[in-house]
Amino acid sequence: MDFAYSEEQEAWRETVAAFLDKHAALAVTREDGFDSGELWRRMGALGLHGLHIAEQDGGQGFGLEELAIVAEEMGARVLGSPYLASTGLTGTLLSRLSSDLLPWVAGGERIATTALWEPGHGWADDAGGVTGLPLNGTKVLVPFGSAADVVVVSCRLDGELALAAVDASDVTWSPVTSLDLTARYATLELRDAPATVLATGAAARAALDRATEVMRTLLAAEMIGGARACLSAAVAYAKERHQFGKPIGSFQAIKHLCADMLAELELARSATLFAVWAVQAGDPRAAMAVSAAKALAGEAYLFIADAALHVHGGMGFTWEHEAHLHLRRARSSSLLFGDARHHRERFLRLAGFGPGTAAASPEPLTSKGTP
């Protein structure tokens, strides 16, 4: 694989970057948070909502590479948007199933999200606390739940994993304060909520596995974008900030720190590019590649965001500077869908090095940590 995007894909990046700079500047994000109206409609006009969904389903028919570019550029601007939850996670999920909802989501007419996790069950996506029809139970850390029109819920029906669509107006939402100030999470309470079953058993499992792998990959790409922005800001500031009559970038300590930041970024970027390719191509190493990318991108973003804050000195610690937004996003995204330790353990298990496991062993349903 050539670890670089094509000329056409780089041209797409320029288009997306120009669009976001015009309509989703960081100042807008900080003042208004997610604009569920105008910005979302403009995204639809650009074709972002159905980017990787087949044309016959109302999408644009592109691949994960183009979607990852969008995620990276959004990450560079710390954009607070349900885009990844609606298009990346739920859109991918619905595209693997026969659902009348897909054209609505692909066209941006409806914002969708997916409720996977339950209290006390870590990152397990089918813990079984939501059962029956109508549905009853609790889901936690639902991304942009309060902005959603429809929710896909993982549940248990007759002992089998199932995926069901629920109208957002038929459930109770409780906002959750997040470390990431640009994100919106909510707790979902289902009390005799009417639902439409989308899939059960093996079909539900296959769709959910695909969607979560895509989402992990997009999170890695988003973190690469954030880390890239932090490094660029740190280098620019090191060139213009003078101390003792010299730019602080001429001091060895700053030089070495920026070099370390670049090394971390390039390692994580390569791993993420490979994961994007592997998932798109259906390579048998895809799950391992995704875990490697998620672990490396999370750690790189955390290190680079923290280092960039320190390069900016006292200014970096102020509320008005964007450095703390990146650091908060880095901490939050590095944990979402499993932290670096979780994915390193998963990588080793998939590679056949875990105790009592084989290379083809499935991921266990529980993990350390509780959402």
Plain-language structure description:
This protein is α+β, with helices and mostly antiparallel strands and 371 residues long. The protein has a domain at 205-350: Butyryl-CoA Dehydrogenase, subunit A, domain 3 (Up-down Bundle), CATH 1.20.140.10. It has helices at 7-23, 26-32, 38-46, 64-76, 83-95, 102-106, 201-240, 252-281, 286-311, 323-335, 340-350; strands at 112-115, 135-143, 150-157, 160-167, 172-176, 185-193, 196-200, 242-243, 246-247. The strands form three sheets. A four-stranded mixed sheet has the order 1-3-4-7. A three-stranded antiparallel sheet has the order 2-6-5, with no helix packed on it. A hairpin with an 8-residue loop joins strand 5 and strand 6 (185-193). Helix 7 (201-240) runs antiparallel to helix 10 (323-335). The protein starts with 6 loop residues before the first helix and ends in a 21-residue tail after the last helix. The model is unreliable at 356-371 (pLDDT under 50).
Write a concise keyword list for the protein shown above.
11 helices; globular; disordered C terminus; alpha+beta; 371 residues; four-stranded mixed sheet; 9 strands; Butyryl-CoA Dehydrogenase, subunit A, domain 3; 50% helix
